[in-house]
Structure of Zf-RVT domain-containing protein:
Amino acid sequence: ISEGFLLVRYLGLPLLASRLSHMDCKVLIYKLMRRTSSWVSNVLSFGGRLQLLASVLFSIQVFWCTAFILPVSITKECNRILRNFLWHGVGNSKKSGKVAWSKVCRPKDEGGLGIKDCRAWNKAAIMKFGSQTTSWSWRNILLSRNFLVHNVLYEVVDGSSFSLWFDPWFFGESIADLCGCRVIQDSGMPSNAKVSNIISVGQWDLPLPSGDLIDISYVSSRIPLAAGSDKIHWLKEGSFTINEAWMTIIPQSMKVEWSKVVWFPRCTPKHSFCVWLAFSNGHRTLDKLFRWGVALD
């Protein structure tokens, strides 16, 4: 029996039973290129292009980012199209931009334009999925677990959902990381034990055969217990949002004092962009032209 393809789409997205390939995402690249070529962008200012990029072009790929783990080559291609449209008004230019794309993708209060890098946004978007997703996508989501573990809070209520040894329920740390795996053998409890195994009648009840467990038993008594089910909270706002995850993923930069001078309510985008270029050293000034060896009369 020859292998075929499931040529079915739902809400514009391909229905797949395996990993998303570069070829599957060609339609996304086509949509971005078609939209950029449909605008008479050579008469638009930089401020106008920025508005179209943020409100239209970015929203096209957001739908895909929140549904799939996109191939790296596709997110790079999306970034390239957005970058080219911002600086040159077309999606397929090979010219360079006035300011590095990494700086453009910073938040406005850190000296950027607030445009979201497609790769970072895709990583943030897939963090909302749980382990009920398909196995191939879940393996890719697990690549972000080292980032997630430092940005979520495990709240023990009945302890039935958390691993006793390997989940970071103990003030942001797991017992295995704190005491080593030897403590599992000393306790006489199985490695797949839940936190609920050391809770009895609403009280903490740890076995005390080792000094490490004595210390943990004493400190864990400060963790209040209540009726209900265990919870995992996003540290910054309490509830998870893709934007908060994106802000945590991207490299943090120093906030700039001039951002409020450039971007303020009812500002003129064209003028604000021009001032932003000046602060970002993006204008082609005489000193730059001399460094580039451009002949001047």
